[in-house]
């Protein structure tokens, strides 16, 4: 019997210092998968439209990310009794409106809200398996089971959401094949792949001239390589077998460095919110 079969289907597995979600979600190597979760979120029409209508995504993309990440981390690394889940949910209460089709949308619609959560789960599993270490099927099931507890902390209905990892995989595959669109918020989020990054105001023009080509090349490689094939097609992102082979070699090198990486101090490996959570629990990260 697998872990997912033996667990309580409604409550999931606990979060905490011994959970796999805690171990990997705040690992800095999650960034190696690029903006996969954020871009895929915005490819769901209702979510992409909500971002376009109610956020500063286009004017202050980085600022929006900086505001969003801490509450999500505090949901994961909080305790069962004290976490930011309900606060995160309430941020979205007034995010509602009308799609171009005339259909109404709401960020608190369970289907829309779960899709955002699903992209974080899938990003976590994929990035860990690619860049940290290969996960067994049982470990993927465990990560998903822990994500049920994570989602419950938001206080949003879980009716109709996957209850096993197999169901989650089917849900994910169906979303990629049938539900996602190249919404302009998603296209904007990967625009630098083809257009390059604009020069940051604080970087002198001569310095940027030297940095822009390698930076743009690496950013495009990480971003496009980190997207599912279906998303690449929808967003018209350039990729081929040669790039894929390079990407897989890059991932293999990252995995080979994991033993050395784990010997680094926690402050170099993990987000500060995670470090504080481990300290709170009297555990070493």
From TrEMBL:
Report the GO molecular function annotations.
oxidoreductase activity
What residue ranges are annotated as transmembrane? none
Domain of life of the organism in this record?
Answer: Bacteria
Q: Where is the ER-bound oxygenase mpaB/mpaB'/Rubber oxygenase catalytic domain?
A: 22-255
Alphabetical list of PANTHER family matching this protein: BLR2777 PROTEIN (PTHR36151), ER-BOUND OXYGENASE MPAB_MPAB'_RUBBER OXYGENASE CATALYTIC DOMAIN-CONTAINING PROTEIN (PTHR36151:SF3)
Protein name in the entry: DUF2236 domain-containing protein
- Species of origin reads Nocardioides marmorisolisilvae
């Amino acid at each position: 019997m697998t872990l997912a079969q033996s667990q309580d289907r409604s409550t999931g597995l606990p979060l905490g210092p011994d959970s796999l979600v805690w171990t990997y979600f705040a690992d800095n190597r999650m960034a190696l998968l690029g903006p996969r979760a954020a871009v895929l979120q915005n490819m769901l029409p209702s979510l992409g439209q909500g971002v376009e209508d109610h956020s500063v995504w286009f004017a202050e993309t980085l600022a929006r990310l900086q505001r969003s990440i801490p509450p999500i981390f505090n949901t994961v690394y909080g305790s069962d009794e004290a976490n930011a889940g309900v606060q995160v949910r309430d941020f979205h209460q007034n995010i509602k409106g009308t799609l171009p089709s005339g259909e109404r949308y709401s960020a608190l619609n369970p289907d829309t809200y779960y899709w955002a959560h699903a992209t974080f789960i899938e990003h976590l599993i994929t990035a860990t398996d690619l860049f940290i270490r290969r996960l067994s099927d049982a470990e993927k099931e465990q990560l998903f089971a822990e994500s049920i507890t994570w989602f419950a902390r938001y206080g949003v209905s879980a009716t109709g959401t996957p209850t096993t990892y197999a169901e989650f995989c089917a849900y994910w595959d169906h979303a990629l094949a049938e539900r996602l669109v190249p919404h302009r918020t998603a296209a904007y989020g990967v625009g630098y792949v083809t257009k390059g990054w604009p020069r940051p105001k604080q970087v002198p023009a001569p310095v940027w001239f030297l940095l822009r080509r390698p930076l743009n090349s690496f950013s495009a490689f990480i971003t496009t390589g980190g997207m599912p094939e279906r998303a690449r097609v929808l967003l018209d992102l350039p990729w081929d077998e040669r790039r894929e082979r390079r990407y897989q070699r890059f991932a293999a090198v990252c995995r080979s460095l994991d033993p050395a990486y784990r010997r680094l101090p926690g402050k170099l490996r993990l987000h500060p919110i995670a470090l504080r959570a481990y300290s709170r629990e009297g555990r070493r990260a």
